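ok so I'm stuck.
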Amino acid sequence: MSQRVNGVIARAKGAPVEVTTIVVPDPGPGEAVVRVQACGVCHTDLHYREGGINDDFPFLLGHEAAGVVEAVGAGVTDVAPGDFVVLNWRAVCGDCRACRKGKPWYCFNTHNAAQRMTLEDGTELSPALGIGAFVEKTLVHAGQCTKVDPAARPAAVGLLGCGVMAGIGAAINTGGVTRGDSVAVIGCGGVGDGAVVGAALAGATTIIAIDTDDQKLEWARKFGATHTVNARGTDVVAAVQELTGGNGADVVVEAVGRPETYKQAFYARDLAGTVVLVGVPTPEMTIELPLLDVFGRGGALKSSWYGDCLPTRDFPMLTELYLQGRLDLDAFVTEEIRLDGVEDAFAKMHTGGVLRSVVIF
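replied:
not stuck anymore, here's the structure
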């Protein structure tokens, strides 16, 4: 039988979110119902509310979550009721051309639940990133559930479901950061600080954090940045070059998603260096670069989808590092809030001072 639970929806573009009753159907074939324990408030959820993703309102927001599997549908064998899982929004199919090439992190046919959760009047909801986890229980494809060690704190490891994983993966998986590298990270929110952490884990010796907010730069230092640059009134490219012997960084991670910061990243890298775009631009944004510079500087210009992660590989490994005390996921959690605090959490994104607000159930 379907269940009625509380969840947070966005009814219309720019309208304040609201807590309302959500109808969650029993899981069908390949699906799972998860009792959500914690869900981070991510900028992507705000983009949904603002109509920056699409206009398929109403949205059931939330996607950066951890919880316990409550029920599974027919044919589900990888997870079972009682499993502690981190939710992911790229459940690989195993059969598309990327998967067949042995690159499942690029899967072009990722899975979501076939059924929709609804309002009490039957209105179908669009779950954010195919998850919708600002809700006491959510319906997802079973492949979106990745088992991790249940000793982990849900509020911390749930952040692997999006922002922190995107940043760590941008540095390690996409950027290929390795020991001795110099790395610059432009934008030090949750994703950018994840990239700082990833660079440190990979053995980078110079890690330059760049932002316009001194509080965020201080956080970046705690996550492993060796140098910080306040971009307000500072030539970012010149600053990075000065800190890297005049050369530029081996890898520059752009975690803002704006043309002006992408240009900074492009010119702040060393010859044959790598630029990784993990910040998400909006549809109207364009960029113009001299083609001779693209050719002459060599290297690689990459985009990072979800940190090019493979959840079944990366989530358990990073959870283990967390439990060993080698990855401080707790430091990303600035505050714990209730469901009715999501709108306030969105407002705090504009004022700074919060790295991650996390809804606790």
